[in-house]
Write a structure and sequence with these properties.
The chain is mostly helical. It has 6 helices and 2 strands, in the order αααββααα.
């Protein structure tokens, strides 16, 4: 099980770098400093721009800049952008074997663990990562 995907990891790294350098950052600078492949970085930055986390600037000297303050950007928010609704585990009895998914004791315990994990992830912002 992988909690954080590659795109989420790259996005968090880019956001941390950008929060340290409060000016417009080019894609090339991020690629060179973070060692992330250019196609991935462009796609990630464009998505963050669509989600209004970044602002984009065209032309010479163009690039991206944080639109939100780093203390207002949370890890769980970035995870949801790139991973959708994140779950730690699905039912291991997926094929209809389980007679009562609603009252499944294991499922309730897993949901409690997920709730705790996501509450903790909801407290992590970009400032706390740098």
């Amino acid at each position: 099980m992988k909690l954080i995907t590659r795109n989420t990891d790259y996005a968090l790294r880019a956001l941390c770098y950008m929060s340290k350098h409060q000016d417009i950052i080019s894609v090339d600078e991020l690629v060179n400093k973070l060692g992330v492949p250019r196609p991935f970085m462009r796609k990630i930055l464009q998505r963050l721009n669509q989600e209004r986390i970044l602002a984009s600037y065209k032309g010479q000297g163009g690039g991206f800049k944080l639109k939100l303050k780093p203390d207002r950007i949370y890890m769980i928010q970035i995870m949801r952008i790139f991973q959708g609704n994140v779950g730690l585990n699905g039912c291991f009895l997926k094929k209809g074997i389980c007679p009562d998914k609603v009252r499944c004791v294991l499922r309730k315990k897993i949901h409690a663990i997920e709730d705790s994990v996501f509450r903790q992830l909801g407290k992590i912002n970009i400032v706390s990562l740098i």
